[in-house]
Design brief:
The complex is a heterodimer. Helix content of chain A is about 70%, strand content about 5%. Chain A is mainly alpha-helical. Chain B has a two-stranded antiparallel sheet with strand order 2-3. Chain B is elongated, with a radius of gyration of 22 Å. The chains are: A mainly alpha, B mainly alpha. Chains A and B meet through strand 1 and helix 1 of A and strand 1, helix 2, strand 3, helix 5 and helix 7 of B.
């Protein structure tokens, strides 16, 4: 086609090429719909509950609207028959006119019918009434007056009474009023307001009103369907009306209480009624129906989450019974049922069924759509993915190029690293090889990290050992305090166990270890305290024996004893003299043990604390063994400790002073060596 | 403006392609129907141009007295002008610009292609065709007067090809659809004969 030309198409031909595009469009649409279907399926589950609640209101409103419409139609039809002798065909024609006017001018039929009715009564002529109604509609729209009021005023004016029209505030010619010229009045009104109704309908508000009208029509349609569905039930219901009414009157409170206690919902209701009331047994068929309806109401109300609503529902059923006694049985019953929620629940159930069907249909369509989309859709996505990958690949290449360009020049950091390397005696093969330089730098950093990690780990290990040593010191201090009276009781053992957070057996074992009574069987002693006391007694005995031998010169100083002072706990001895072995006869059959060797310090002071700290404090079999490495705790043994109690008190005092000073009892060399 | 409610022919090309194998004359007959209809429409549209200028009994004049007919546009003028100058009226050029076309063109959004159209290709012809289609005054008093006088003398916009298409479209379409149906019937006969 020529560019820029004015083109007037005469003929068009369907093009098969377009079907490809159509298929593609359809495939995309199906894909979108499929996605929508999945979401909608989930949404329906949530919406169903809300919809059910909405359906209750919808059902109530629908039935009400349908009934109101039926009523107004019946009244108008009756009026037409009485006043004009209209046939059914003519009545249908009037209904069609009402409907067309409603849709054309957005005026509710419930307003149009009373208006027309008033005018028909006045004019006795349907055609005249319809013409006058048009005038009334225009006046109503133009002056903002109620249509029925305007229509009634016009009807009165038709009969010669113009006061009603004047009271509406519509300016009229006094001359015409005086002459009672109705036609002149109507013409005057027409000339002033003609087209107002149509204009109003075409406004935004009118269009909104049209939506409301459409919704009302839907409600009426639903309401009519509900009424039709209720009719068979009502007919059956009315057959048993007297008995049911009596029964409900007698048992209303029981039923209400039954619901309030919340015993059950649904079908169980009928069963419970059957067991409870003999009346039900005689009329089970009726109650099966009633129960089903009530069950529906209950489930509907359950959605609304209100037990009280159930009670209201039951009371409403009673209301139905009472209303059914009146002349207008069908309509009143339907209204009462709807008000009570029963018809609404039926509507809700129907709505839920419809939703379920929609969901199923959506699922099916979803599957079908996926099948239909099939290969074409997948192919499209694959291509898309391929495009993306290729783009990313190219993008990645760009990044590589950039990185390479950067590597060709040394950064300030790399230059500094090079200088550092030189200081360390490391010279790369070529200083301009930035990559190698960087690798070397990172390697150094890595090695530095390893060394740092090792240092930190050593610190941590040292701290752990320090904590353990502190704990051992604290325990030993506690033990000395307990033994200050040269006696340890079971209560003291229990107290130590509680303080240390270990069992009494563990306390005894601990004491036995540090006192040299390691190889004993606690089960053979009468009490933990006795075991500990025995161990301690042995230790003191050994100490005294040592002092005695020292005084007699049978024990050489450590410097003269080969292998002594290594903290290994070896027995003390001199060449030609066996190690000091102290035996004692213990009560309760405790076996004799050999105490660890007691090493005479090289200087007049013996110290706790050495590289073998753990062994010093009972973690090994030796007690008070060690070298002169430590300096924190000093026990003066220059012969002035003469008694057992003095010795114990001296040791305890020293430990307590050390602990109270805030210092650690031991100065571990491992920490300082890190 | 031409109404866009066009008849969509289905199977036109397929029918003609298949029919070629059996009956060349039938194909020619069908093509002749389309070509004749388009030619007649084109002539009618061209006739409207003649009528427009002959109102002054001088085909060399423009439909409006102020519409220049011999304006010579120099290169200098084009360089100095920010917009294209208003086209002069050249009856022969406009007549020549009114053509019929069977070019299919692109597939449109409704999955159709053109099977026949009238074109008004010249600038002056297009202005004469659609000037005043947008209601309201012109941007200048001269423009307003131009639109008003065109409307008064030649009617509302759609004065050439659209006017003809609006007038004759149904007749043309009916004739062509009838011819296509005949061609399909003819093809069917041949196919049945072949199969039997």
């Amino acid at each position: 086609m020529a560019k820029g030309a004015v083109i007037a198409r005469i003929l068009s031909e369907y093009d098969a090429k377009g079907t490809k595009q159509a298929r593609k469009d359809l495939s995309e649409l199906q894909g979108k719909f499929s996605e929508f279907g999945k979401k909608a399926t989930q949404a329906f589950a949530i919406a169903a509950a809300a919809s059910a609640a909405f359906a209750i209101k919808m059902g109530v409103d629908s039935v009400k609207a349908a009934m109101a419409e039926q009523q107004s139609m019946a009244i108008l039809a009756n009026t037409l028959k009485n006043v004009t002798g209209a046939t059914n065909e003519q009545i249908d024609s009037v209904n069609s006119y009402i409907r067309s006017t409603m849709l054309r001018l957005n005026v509710q039929d419930d307003l149009l019918r009373p208006s027309l009715q008033a005018l028909v009564i006045a004019t006795h002529d349907v055609s005249k009434a319809e013409s006058l109604q048009q005038v009334a509609l225009d006046v109503s729209a133009n002056k903002g007056k109620d249509l029925t009021a305007v229509s009634v005023a016009l009807a009165k004016a038709y009969a010669g009474n113009f006061n009603a029209l004047k009271r509406l505030g519509i300016p009229l010619s006094e001359t015409l009023i005086k002459s009672k010229d109705f036609i002149g009045i109507v013409k005057e009104l027409e000339s002033a307001t003609k087209g107002s109704a149509a204009a109003a309908a075409d406004t935004f508000a009118g269009k909104i009103s049209r939506i409301g009208l459409a919704f009302d029509e839907v409600k009426k349609t639903i309401g009519n369907a509900i009424i039709l569905a209720l009719e068979p039930f009502l007919q059956k219901f009315m057959k048993f009306l007297p008995q049911i009414e009596k029964w409900l009157d007698e048992n209303a409170k029981k039923i209400a209480a039954f619901f309030i206690t919340g015993i059950s919902y649904g079908i169980a209701f009928a069963q419970v009624l059957y067991d409870t009331f003999s009346f039900v047994a005689r009329n089970i068929k009726t109650f099966e129906t009633l129960g089903a309806v009530i069950a529906a109401a209950i489930f509907g109300a359950k959605v609304a989450a209100s037990v009280q609503a159930l009670v209201t529902g039951v009371m409403a059923i009673i209301k139905v019974m009472k209303v059914l006694r009146t002349a207008s049985l069908g309509a009143a019953a339907a209204e009462a049922l709807a008000t009570g929620g029963i018809s609404a629940a039926a509507g809700a159930a129907a709505f839920a069924v419809a939703l379920g069907a929609i969901t199923l249909a959506t699922n099916k369509f979803d599957k079908d759509a996926e099948k239909a989309a099939g290969k074409v859709g997948n192919l499209k996505f694959n291509f898309k993915g391929l495009t993306t990958t290729a783009a990313d690949y190219l993008k990645g290449l760009t990044g590589v190029n950039t990185a390479t360009a950067k590597n060709t020049n040394l950064t300030a950091q790399q230059t500094k690293a090079l200088a550092d390397l030189k200081k360390m005696g490391i010279v790369p093969t070529t200083e301009k090889d930035a990559i190698e330089l960087e690798a070397a730098r990172q390697n150094l950093v890595k090695q530095g990290n390893i060394a740092e990690q090792q240092r930190i780990q050593a610190i941590l290990d040292g701290m752990t050992a320090q904590l353990a040593a502190n704990e051992a010191t604290a325990r030993y201090n506690d033990l000395l305090a307990a033994l200050s009276d040269s006696h340890i009781s079971s209560e003291e053992v229990a107290a130590l166990a509680k303080k240390w957070g270990i069992s009494q057996d563990a306390v005894v074992a601990y004491i036995a270890q540090i006192t040299g009574a390691a190889a004993f069987d606690p089960s053979q002693l009468s009490s933990p305290g006795a075991v500990a006391a025995a161990g301690w007694q042995k230790a003191l005995d050994a100490l005294n024996a040592y002092y005695a031998k020292l005084a007699s010169g049978t024990i050489l100083p450590p410097s003269l004893v080969p292998g002594s002072g290594n903290g290994a706990g070896s027995s003390v001895g001199t060449p030609g003299n066996p190690p000091v072995t102290i035996s004692s006869t213990l009560p309760y059959g405790m076996p004799n043990t050999v105490l660890g060797g007691i090493v005479l310090p090289a200087t007049p002071t013996a110290s706790f604390g050495s590289k073998d700290t753990a062994a010093q404090y009972g973690f090994g079999a030796n007690f008070m063994s060690g070298t002169s490495g430590g300096s924190t705790t000093i026990i003066n043994v220059q012969g002035n400790i003469q008694t057992q109690s003095d010795n114990a008190a001296s040791i305890a005092k020293q430990f307590q002073l050390n602990q109270l000073s805030g210092k650690t009892a031991l100065n571990l060399g491992s920490i300082a060596n890190i | 403006m031409a109404n866009n409610d066009v008849v969509i022919l289905v199977g036109l090309n397929e029918t003609l392609t298949a029919l070629k194998e059996f009956d060349q004359q039938a194909v020619k007959k069908f093509q002749k129907v389309i070509n004749d209809e388009l030619r007649h429409a084109k002539k009618d549209a061209q006739e409207l141009i003649y009528k427009a200028v002959s109102q002054g009994n001088d085909v060399q004049t423009a439909p409006l007295s102020g519409w220049q007919t011999q304006k010579k546009v120099t290169v200098q003028t084009l360089k100095q002008s920010k917009t294209r100058p208003f086209p002069s009226w050249d009856t022969s050029e406009i007549i020549a610009g009114i053509v019929s076309s069977r070019a299919t063109g692109k597939v449109r959004g409704d999955y159709t292609t053109s099977a026949g159209a009238l074109l008004n290709k010249s600038r002056a012809g297009a202005i004469f065709e659609i000037a005043g289609r947008v209601k309201g005054d012109g941007k200048t008093p001269q423009g307003t007067a131009f639109k008003r006088i065109l409307n008064e003398k030649f009617g509302e916009a759609s004065r050439v090809v659209w006017r003809i298409v609006d007038r004759d479209r149904l007749k043309i379409q009916a004739n062509i659809v009838k011819a296509l149906d005949e061609a399909k019937t003819e093809l069917q006969k041949h196919l049945e004969t072949k199969n039997s």
